[in-house]
Amino acid sequence: MSSVRFESRRAALADVVAIPVTPFAADGSVDTGAHRALLRRLLDGGITTLTPNGNTGEFYALTPEERRQVTESTVDEAGGRAAVLVGVGHDLPTAVASARHARDLGAGMVMVHQPVHPYVSAAGWVDYHRAIAESVPELGVVPYLRDAQLPGARLAELADHCPNVIGVKYAVPDTVRFAAFARDAGLDRFVWVAGLAEPYAPSYFSAGATGFTSGLVNVAPAVSLNMIEALRSGDYPAAMKVWEQIRRFEELRAAHGSANNVTVVKEALASLGLCRRDVRPPSRTLPEDERAEVAAIATGWPI
């Protein structure tokens, strides 16, 4: 398939790539009604790229059936209003089945989670992603890269085999490494998405990223859109004003090795009356004394 066919999907990655939460009902099941309402809120807020089954969506805490359910709801709500980038992963047959399910529903792209296998070789990383990409040649494929050891040349090798590998969600917290990796892989060959969200977006954009992922966007879509507008226009002082605005919220999410990454987002949504605060183990809800700070931040942002 020619790269021209992927043009709109590449454009969708060069944007705020929202990672919606997966709200849970009182009985612990996925709250489909609340999930759909949150998706509509994102769409109405101007968000045009959605990633069901991302880490902020508690991908690793969902059952296979729940992951399918989340994908189906997202594709249905997105309609023609947004591109859908479906998170896939786990063992290879599961990842391939998830990618094909996404394709059959009409999603345009899949994001391949960084393999959590304890023994990942660089060549094996290529094999894993190649098998997924080749199973859905019609879809754009976006590796989610958290491995600082992987050389950029391996990504180029993957794309030589699979022209549908069109972008990278780069989530290694090292701007210098990102700049080198992107140039070793091919800066213009892929859409580079800053995979560590708004806190890293300005520095990663300065090195070649053109999109960023966001969990904060669940709470305040306007804040994330303000940042990408500033970055697109090269107005780094304006982008850093947004950075200052979201700094404390993101520090709370990043604390204790990102233990509360999802917890803080759901707490903010709960404070606004948009969903329950419940998260699944190994995440945990915030202690009572920290909830007020999150609520105060959330109420201070424009929606």
TrEMBL record:
The active site is at residues 144, 169. Keywords: Lyase. The keyword Lyase applies. GO terms for molecular function: 4-hydroxy-tetrahydrodipicolinate synthase activity. CDD domains: DHDPS-like. It holds the Pfam family DHDPS. InterPro entries: Aldolase_TIM (IPR013785), DapA-like (IPR002220). The keyword Magnesium does not apply. Pyruvate binds at residue 56. Belongs to the DapA family. This is Dihydrodipicolinate synthase family protein. It comes from Streptomyces monashensis. The lineage of its organism: Bacteria, Bacillati, Actinomycetota, Actinomycetes, Kitasatosporales.
